[in-house]
Design goal:
about 375 residues, 5-stranded antiparallel sheet, 8 helices, 5 strands, disordered C terminus
């Protein structure tokens, strides 16, 4: 886990999207028994957590699309209701004019009325009114035709939008089942381990994280000093810090619990700068920033598929919702293999003075990869 850090390639976003859409391979259960090397157990658990989080982020993306699609269905239904009312009004008006035309069909023509009139000017005025009625009738017929076309188009679009919503709902259900399957895999793996194995796993994971952090720090990739955040970044950081200790829950975006991108998206929404919901979308849509220019509030994205994300605090630390079974905590930035970083507010100016929020001592407790009971 300590050898992969600065993997920021031009094709990363495309590869991430393809990886997320591809079905996840089945995960083999670990062989029982204390003789199995702890390093192998750690690798298996890392793979299990990674697959579970990948499935979670895919579920989150579909949930966002479903939410937008439901809003679109509601909007189209509202427009269709208005169009139907307008069509009803146009038909009523067309019927009224048709009846008036029928009643006047046997009357004297305006030309004859003008010839016989004692007051030709009055007759001309009446002719003007008749002309206006004819023009009004033509406009009404035109409106009727337009309203009929609009209603037919809206009805078709509303049916298509509803079909899309139903398709997304079924897709979301299948992805929810996929997440539950992945989490069950992790539960079975953990249940198969002894207390000594769990202790050894936690120690090895801690050593690996410390080694990765040391390598990253000594490489100079983080820069020598942390610049201050923007006002929005400051608000995002303080919001995230207030969530410390709340549990990880897949698909959650607060306020009681979070998954990784639920925490980062909610923090920036609270700061007044809405960002995409999932880690893949955040990586693909937000401007990238080099690690040596990180400032508090920036988002650090992990793994080649961009399946995990954390919010940068400064001084080589992030706040994150790590894994199922863990709580929102402060971790070393190198706790997971770094893909790169993004900045939600690239044009915002940094604060002239910045005092970081206080971090409780307990905020760093616990495993950064959540090796514990789910």
């Amino acid at each position: 886990m300590s050898g992969r850090y600065l993997r920021v390639a031009c094709t990363a976003a495309v590869a991430a999207a393809q990886a997320v859409l591809a079905p996840l391979p089945a995960l083999a259960a670990p062989a029982p028994g204390p003789e199995r090397p702890v390093a192998e157990l750690l690798t298996d658990l890392q793979q299990a957590y990674r697959q579970a989080e990948q499935a979670t982020e895919t579920y989150n993306a579909t949930a966002e699309r479903l939410q937008r699609q439901r809003a679109e269905v509601t909007r189209l239904d509202g427009e269709l209701t208005i169009a139907r009312r307008s069509l009803h009004t146009s038909r009523t008006e067309a019927g009224r004019l048709a009846r008036a035309q029928y009643q006047n069909a046997g009357g004297i023509s305006p030309y004859v009325r003008l010839l016989l009139a004692r007051d030709p000017q009055h007759a001309l005025d009446e002719g003007h009114v008749i002309g206006e009625l004819a023009r009004e009738r033509a406009k009404t017929v035109g409106r009727l035709a337009d309203d009929e076309r609009r209603q037919a188009d809206l009805a078709r679009r509303a049916r298509t939008a509803l079909d899309t919503q139903l398709t997304l709902a079924e897709k979301q259900r299948k992805q929810r089942d996929e997440v539950r399957t992945r989490l069950s895999d992790v539960e079975r793996m953990l249940a198969s381990l002894t207390a000594d194995q769990l202790t050894a796993l936690a120690g090895l994971e801690k050593d690996n994280t410390a080694d990765a952090q040391r390598r990253l720090t000594t490489s100079g990739a983080l820069g020598s000093a942390t610049p201050p955040p923007s006002p929005e970044g400051d608000r995002a950081v303080r919001y995230a810090v207030r969530q410390l200790g709340k549990p990880y829950r897949w698909g959650a975006a607060g306020p009681a619990s979070y998954d990784c991108s639920g925490l980062t998206s909610r923090a920036w929404d609270h700061a007044g700068t809405p960002i995409p919901r999932t880690s893949q979308e955040q990586w693909a849509d937000l401007p990238h920033v080099p690690l040596n220019r990180l400032r508090p509030g920036d988002l650090v994205v992990y793994f080649p598929e961009a399946t995990h994300v954390a919010l940068y605090l400064g001084d080589g630390k992030v706040v994150q919702a790590p894994r199922p079974g863990a709580k929102v905590k402060v971790s070393p930035i190198a706790a997971n293999p770094i893909l790169g970083a993004v900045r939600p507010d690239p044009t915002a100016r940094p604060l002239a003075r910045y005092t970081p929020p206080p971090i409780p001592k307990t905020a760093t407790e616990g495993s950064d990869e959540a090796f514990g009971t789910l």
